[in-house]
Amino acid sequence: MVSMGNLLLVESSINSLVFSQVSAHFSFRRRLPAIRSSSVSPSIISDMDTEMIPGLYPLRRCKTIHLVRHAQGFHNVEGEKDYKAYLSYDLLDAQLTPLGWQQVHNLRKHVQACGLHKNIELVITSPLLRTMQTAVGAFGGEYSDGIDASPLMVANAGKSNHPAISSLNCPPFIAVELCREHLGVHPCDKRRSISDYRPLFPAIDFSLIEHEEDVLWKPDVREEDEEVAIRGMKFLNWLWTRKEKEIAIVSHSGFLYHTLSTFGKDCNPSIKSEMCTHFANCELRSLVLVDKSMIGSNTSTTDFPGKIPNGLDLPSDVAEKDQ
């Protein structure tokens, strides 16, 4: 079990990373007590290495999230050649390179092959061209003869020379500002007007974007790493306002790295290394988000109350203690 102030992280038995957010920055309720077996001595538990104790949580308090960094953009190529290129307005809201589109197609093949596309209920994307292109390319639908569906992306969006991508038989897509890259200074991280995006991505929902223009990006002030991490916590907190249980999130290297780096300070070094590293272009990591602070109010779809019909059911160990 990992703690960072009021933030907790637990590794699950299926080698997923389990988050519990009770940050004092936001509105949270009291943390639930840990579950312990009455047959195990507290002294034995206290003597155990906390890294060896697995986490156990009600399924209705969990969400599965699939984090994806966008595929290669033109800013990645130019910036690796010369860091000063990140300051160029020629790279404003940089789109994917042809190689980036190849990365997207390979991710899509993986998503289809492992069956992930059948489980995802919602796709959240940062409202920049490269993330939206990656999101629709990896998780979008396919056109079928005789069936009309609004395109997720029109043909040649952003002068990409890429064919249109259908919204048929795929989850809803929404654009969210909270999961954007570091804000400010670098034009590649500045978004365009929402009215520019709507015709290119007709089936993406932009209703959560408050401002038509990018009022968050400043030409002379770059967002600090700590500010990005706090924004990441706000984003994870916001996820609990969603009813969906399995969500794909397409974002950026800096946002993902600084959000995840908030966790893992006192866990096994191999787990911290697995989690707190920069994402490769088009890399996907699956995690489990846990609501230990009672933020969510979802009811279980699988729990069954028992005693139907009603009958006597006093357990023997309870009866023995009552004597």
From TrEMBL:
SMART domains: PGAM. GO terms for cellular component: cytoplasm. Transmembrane segments: none annotated. Coiled coil: none annotated. GO terms for molecular function: phosphatase activity. It comes from the Eukaryota. Residues 300-323 are annotated as: Disordered. InterPro entries: His_Pase_superF_clade-1, His_PPase_superfam, PGM_Phosphatase. Belongs to the phosphoglycerate mutase family. May play a role in carbohydrates metabolism. This is Phosphoglycerate mutase-like protein 1. The lineage of its organism: Eukaryota, Viridiplantae, Streptophyta, Embryophyta, Tracheophyta.
